[in-house]
Structures are given as C-alpha cells and as structure tokens.
Amino acid sequence: MLKNIITFSVQQKFVALSLVVLMAVGGYFSLIRLPINSLPDVTPVQVLVITKAGRFSPFDVEKLVSYPIETAMNGLPDVAQVRSISQFGLSAVTVEFDEGTDIYFARQMVSQRLQSIAEELPPGVSSPQLGPISTALGEIYQYVVHGENYSLTELREIQDWLIAPQLKVVRGVTEINSFGGFVKQYDVIVQPGRLRMFGIGISDVMDAIANNNSVSGGNFIEHNDEQYIIRGFGQINSPKDIENIIVKNVENKPVFIRDIAAVEIGTQIRQGGVTQDGNGEVVTGIVMMLRGGNGREVISDIEDKIENINASLPEGVEIEKFYDQSDLISRTTKTISTNLIEGGLLVIVILLLMLGEISGALIVAAVIPLSMLFAFIGMREFGLAANLMSLGAIDFGMVVDGSVVMVENIVHRLQKDKNADKAEVIKSAAQQVVRPIFFGVLIILMVYVPIMTFSGMEGILFRPMAITVAAAVFGSLLLALIFVPAMSAIIFRKGVKVRKNRLINWLKPRYMSSLEKYLDRRWMVVSIAGVIFAASLFLMTRLGTEFLPELDEGSILIEQVRMPSVTLDQSIENADWLAGQLKKNIPEIETVVPKTGRSDLANDWMGVHQTDVWVVLKPPKEWRKGITREDIVAMIEPYLQTEPGLAYNFTQPIAMRVDELTSGVKSDLAVKIYGEDLEMLNKIGDNISALLPSLPGTDNYYVEQTAGQPYVTIEIDREAVATFGLNVNDVQTVVEAGIGGKEVSILYEGQRSFGIVVSYPENVRDELYKIQDIPVHLP
C-alpha cells in the first residue's frame, strides 16, 4: 500500500499536488475559525445553582435551601462532586460532572431535578436559577459606567436597562454581570403609630398593594366585523398610584396608603460594592463569554458594540473599560507566533546548511507550514482552541524527519544513477525508504498516545498539546509520502546538481577520526555515559517541581479577608483607601478597582468581609527602569499591613478564578477538613495553620472564617402568641417585612420594572431595644 502511494504521487504528481493544495486551503479556513484564547480552559464541566433566599441567615440557608438542593443533585448520573456555599440570603451549589459530559445535557439534568424539589423550599425563597454557561476564562471584559451629575442609583439603572441588554446580543456573550451602585426600588415606609391608630396590621398593607396591581385578559368581542381584544388594566404606574390605594375602611371612611405610610424612591439591600482609584463607589459591568467562545473575536465585537452604545447613552454618561483579556491574548499569540516562526526558520537554515541540494532543502522546508495547516484541521475537528499549551509544544525537528530522509535518499540515488530515467529513480528511491519513514513516524506518534489518555486536570491541559503535535506529525508523514515525491518528480526531472558543502566536508573527517578513536575505548565511553546518567538522576531528585509555570497576566489581584462581623460600608471604605494609596504612590499601576462582597448575579459568592482588589498594571515598557512585578507586589504589601486583622493573598485574576472554580477555594493549595463538629474542625484548622509558616515555599496563608458573624435571634414565645390569639406567622410577618423589608409587588416604568417594598422606618428598627418595642397587630 505504501509503495502504491509513492507510485501514485510520482506518476500523478499534479493530482497529488492538487490534493495538497486542497488540504492547505482547508487548513487556512480552519485556522481563521479556530478559537484563540490565552490559556487552555481547565474549568471542569460544572453547573452552578444560585438561589436567592430573601433575608434568611446563613444557618437557615444551609439547612432549608443548600442541603436539599445538594442532596438532590447527588443522585444525578455522571456527577463527580457537589459542594455548596451558604451566605446571608444566598445559596450557591456547584454540581461538577465527569469529564466529557456535555454541558447542555448536564444543565438539563440539573434543571429537571430542581423542578422536583422546588416545592420543598420554604416560602420567600426564589426559584433556583442556573448560573451562566461560562468558565474561569469567561470574565473577558470589564468596564465602569461614568456619568457627571448622575447618582449611583441612576447609573445602575442605565447599566441594567440600557447597556446590559445591548451587550447581551453580542455573539459569544452569555451574561452581563452588574456590580456596584444601588438598584432602584419603591419603598413604602409604614409608620407603626399610624397603623395602631387605625387598627391596621402591616400584612393588611402588603395585601392591599398586591391586590391593587394587576393586569387581566377578557378574551375578545366582535363588533362591526372587527375583533376587539379585551384587556383589564389595573397596574400601578407611579408612586401616586401607591399612595391612593385603600387599605381599609374605618368607620365608613377609607384609609389610604398615604395616611399610614410614605412612598419614596429607595434602594435594594445590597451585599457588595465597587470603588476605583480611591475616588469612591462606581457602577461596573462584567461581560461573561460563552463556554468555548473565541476570546479575541468576542472582545473585538464588544469593543465595536460599546462604541455604538456610548453614542446612544444620555449626555455625560460613558462606558470606560478598565480590564480585558485582549492584551493577554495578544501577548500569548505573539509568543506562539514568534516561537513557531523562529523555530521554523531555524530548521530551514539548518536544512540549507546541511543538505547539499538547495532545491531539496526547500522542498523539506515547505513541509513545515503545510504540516501546521494540517494540524489546524485536526484542531478544528477535535474542537480545540489555539493557545499557549496547544501550539507551544510543536517540534519542527520531528515534523521534517520523514521528509529529510525521503529527499536525502532521492538526491543520493539521482546522483548515483545519472543516466537512468529520473521518474523511475525517484519512485524507486522513495519506495526504498517509505517503510522506515512510516514506522519511524508511527513510533513518534505512539509517544503521545499515553498523554491522550490523561483525565482530569492533566487531560484538559496536556491532551490538546498531544493532539496538536500528533496531527502535525501525521500530516508531515502524509506530505513525506505524497508531496515530497511529487515535488521531486517535478523539480528533479532533469537531475540534481549537488553543490560542495564546506561544513559537511569539514565535519566529516573529524567525526570519522573521533569515531574510530572511541570505538577502541568503548568501555570508557559507556562508563562515562553511565556516570552522567546516574548524576542526572541524583540531580533530578533535588529539583523543585510545579504543575505549570505561572503565566504573567499583566494584572495583580489581592484577596482581602476581614472579620465576618465587619459591615459592608466599612469594608468598602477600607478598600477604597487602599486603592487611592496604591494609585497615588505606585506609578506602574494603571487603575485599582476593589470589589467587595458579591454582585447581583452572585456567581462569585463573597461575603461583605471579602474584597478582591484588581490592580491593573501599565505596559512594562512604561515602568521605571529595573522595576519588576515582584517589586510592585513588595511595594503594595506595606499598605495592606496597616489594616488590623486583615488576611490577604496575592494572585492574578484568571488564576484566582481557576482555583475557585476547580476546587472551590481561592488559593494555590488548600487543606480541606471534613466532619460534623464545627468546633473540632476549627481547632484542627488552627493546628494545621500553625505548621504552615515553617514549610518551605509558604508565602502567606489564612484560615477560612466559619464563625464570628453576630446574630440577633428573635425567639417567638408560643404561649404568649396563643394568649393573644396570634399565629407564629403573624409575628414572622412583622420580622420579615417590618424589620427586614419585603417586596410585595412590582411597578413598571415602560419596559423597566422596580420592586415595591414595605417596611418600617429605619429609626424604629436600628437598635435592639427598638426592635423589642415594635407592635404586632392583634386579630
């Protein structure tokens, strides 16, 4: 079969070359369609289930929401791991599936299982939602919404209702995550004294608002050969409509909302905030790329879309980018291109120097780009992306091995048989070495088979590299069997003229002399080789190891952890001060954006005591002479040490997300301790942490806080409740709505919707003794 391929290539050389051209065209179109990212995406197949649990405490969220969902997910097929985080008003359950599971099939299974347990969740808990179809590389673009003379609430409204919907239509974007500012709502501030005077309970107010805000449909009627659709409209259109709602008739006189409450524009309770450069809070947006998307194309499309959006925003409002992955992708792509081009040129130079026939050397050199085009076809078919790992291991020496042997033998035979038919000589010479070439390349391919069987993190990282290299080597084999004989039949149809090779002529006698010399001393040579090998084994045991070298992303991320009892405002104030100091005193920094707590999407479930400080650096060419990234970290650290009780860790944005999504912990290395006794777990954790400073390589560490959050627990006296003829829910309504505030309906302003929230005034619920005096309406 192999000889038949050679015969076809020589006799039908133009047909063979046409096939090569078709392959090259296919490789080019595969290249321009390849997703291009900075790094291989190591995020496992996982589905995030986010449940907003109203005003429930972390303890109740864990017991009533996270545990039922987590238990239900354990029964799904192909589930590798289920873990959860429970915080104030939020449950985040991560369901990780076995490698190779289709992400959409996994989401479908999770969604179906959620429907079966939805009724088990307590009232006041929203329906569980699936997180965006994104990965650790998904947060590719982040921006700030600036606006002169606009409040944070107004800027947030512009972000949510004008900017985000337009960005979602960009191809490859799966979600726009808004973070920072205040979400607008309409507050109905009920006065307890007025309620007592009219004998009205807060539940009556809630029911009145809910019952006076609706739309109905009455089918249609036919009149004068026309069809009229009947619509009953009773929606609230303005705060005035809320004020005019009747709550109750007292002595035949209506009591309106305006008689017992004030209706005003307010803001939702939030669990996060963003600042920038020490200038106070800002509104930001995070563009999340769809899993498997082409990062370079998505960023380019986002830039174009934002340019159009800026032109349509209200006067004085502007979107300003502060972070994207385009620079990292560009630098990575440049590194790959430089390595491939320089490596290819180096091999070509060596070929021209070592092969005596220039035309033959050029034939072999042409195999390099053609093999790469064939590799791009393989990458496209296997669904691989072009990145540092998949393309960084291409070895052009292996790629040209078969072609070098083929051309060298053809040139040698043509030089030897000068009077014979050139086509027959080329065919005979190629057939003479086709079997060694085939099996030699096959052996090289077999080296990568074990790598292709890797699973887990190792498989995600190294399997694309093995597939890409194997595709390039296999392509080079096909080219050695088809392209090289066909081109040789065309170029060498009049024979070959081997030029004098001065380098080979100079090396050859010296090599022969050394060979004869050391063949007579073979035991000495073998002994020396054995000693060198043994020494290398000894040195290998002393070398440090790491899974992957750290890639410089061009940005620094500082993780800050404070005491759990700290308030959001205090965390934001401290983080803003740090941002101002860093921006002011370190000229290598472009901008500093601290993100405290969690966003509305809650895909990054941080508490108010946690802050991620994004330190975006200027290009290295703009740094002071001699300054390195390590120097910048050292300059930042003293400012972190000024805050008492602050634990911190230096990392990078993508590295942090990879750590968090793969293990649930924002750290390079984590020790997880399992058990039922929380006090014992904390004790063991403290004992382990005491050992960490003495371990070589430890930079910094902290023990995750599992306690320290203060609670005010209102325990209902059931006997007292029964004495007054009340139910427990009557008291719970006062706790939930009066103290915490409860959304009872929605007010629509065009396409925009805002919650209507009922609560008591801040001044009657801001102290413990005041909470004790809040009245409960008797039936």
Automatic annotation (TrEMBL):
GO molecular function: monoatomic cation transmembrane transporter activity; xenobiotic transmembrane transporter activity
UniProt cross-references to InterPro entries, sorted A to Z: AcrB_DN_DC_subdom (IPR027463), Acrflvin-R (IPR001036), CusA-like (IPR004763)
Membrane topology: Multi-pass membrane protein
GO cellular component, one term: plasma membrane
Cited Gene3D superfamilies: Multidrug efflux transporter AcrB pore domain, Multidrug efflux transporter AcrB pore domain like, Multidrug efflux transporter AcrB TolC docking domain, DN and DC subdomains, Multidrug efflux transporter AcrB transmembrane domain
Transmembrane segments: 12-31, 336-355, 391-412, 433-454, 466-492, 523-541
This protein's record includes keyword Cell membrane: yes
UniProt keyword Membrane, yes or no: yes
Domain of life, source organism: Bacteria
The family this protein is said to belong to: Belongs to the resistance-nodulation-cell division (RND) (TC 2.A.6) family.
NCBIfam families per UniProt: 2A0601
Protein's name according to its UniProt entry: Efflux RND transporter permease subunit
Source organism phylogeny: Bacteria, Pseudomonadati, Bacteroidota, Bacteroidia, Marinilabiliales
